[in-house]
Design goal:
Layout lengths: L1 H19 L10 H15 L2 H13 L4 H28 L7 H10 L13 E5 L6 H10 L2 E5 L3 H14 L5 E4 L14 E4 L6 H8 L8 E6 L19 E7 L7 E7 L6
Parallel strand pairs: 1-2, 1-4, 2-3, 4-5
Antiparallel strand pairs: 5-7, 6-7
Helix pairs in contact: 1-4, 2-4, 4-7
């Protein structure tokens, strides 16, 4: 019975995400429903009993799980991007209300780099900054670091700039639509954060190896198991290039974090 209900829940979520994925209308007509859907889904994938069911299905090698995971991940990521745009528009109009999903994300940010602290001298690159760049704002506000956010969505960049102007115009934050390889100052970056919904983040990490300095620290947001229905999962890396030096696993958080340094550097 539990398994049948679980399968039905996943099918229902996918149907609802597909419905909202392409319905961003700039006037927040669907915002409340979408907020509720994303909050419900966040609760679902951080529920331990649901996680146990998913792990059991994976152990059994149940067919179709990978395809379902890929669809749910893709459509939920699009809906979260849309929700960020609604939240940005809401803020620009003077409303600073926050949903459970965004509160969860902000709690995750507190634990981002573990022992590799960001300071006022740091330069942080955020890959996949989105329309409501919470990570950029919180890091810049609390540490004084310079933050560079990149995103492939021009509309997200435009809204993000307005959010920064509203919440932290004095902060050292830049948002741009530029491939990581084209950043002139990539050698100066001390910390890199990859959004969990960037599909090719591990390919980008590979390309960044020869371009970055030897001390750079990478925080790779990801989700394995049931969390892979909302985040792109962790992958193996070549230890000679990027060595996994720490993981931050939090049952109640929407994503987990893998910390990497260059393979030539020992964690110390």
């Amino acid at each position: 019975m539990k398994l049948t209900m679980f399968d039905q829940s996943l099918a229902d979520y996918l149907t609802r995400f597909k419905y909202f994925a392409d319905r961003f209308d700039h006037i927040s007509r669907h915002r409340t429903e979408l907020e509720r859907l994303v909050d419900d889904y966040s609760t679902f994938i951080t529920d331990e009993s649901n996680s146990n069911i998913w792990d059991g299905l994976e152990r059994q090698g149940t067919g179709g799980l990978n395809g379902l995971a890929e669809e749910l991940r893709a459509y939920s990521a699009r809906c979260v991007a849309t929700l960020e745009k609604y939240r940005a528009l809401k803020l620009i109009k003077g409303d600073t209300g926050i949903t459970d999903y965004f509160r969860n994300i902000e709690e995750c940010i507190e634990k981002e780099f573990g022992s590799f602290q960001v300071t006022s001298k740091s330069i942080v690159l955020l890959v996949g900054s989105g329309a409501f760049p919470m990570t950029a704002l919180l890091i810049a506000k609390r540490t004084g670091a310079e933050v560079i956010g990149i995103d492939i969505d021009d509309e997200a960049i435009g809204l993000g700039v307005k959010v920064i102007e509203a919440l932290g115009p004095e902060l050292k934050i830049r948002l741009i639509n530029t491939p990581v390889e084209n950043l002139d100052y990539i050698q100066e970056v001390t910390h890199i954060i990859f959004s969990s919904t960037v599909a090719d983040k591990y390919d980008m990490l590979e390309r960044l190896h020869p371009l970055t300095n030897e001390e750079v620290v990478v925080a790779m947001r990801h989700g394995n198991g049931l969390k892979s229905l909302f985040n792109y999962p962790m992958k193996e890396t070549d230890d000679d290039k990027w060595k996994l030096v720490d993981t931050v696993l939090r049952q109640n958080d929407i994503f987990d974090i893998a910390l990497y340094k260059k393979g030539t550097i020992t964690h110390g």
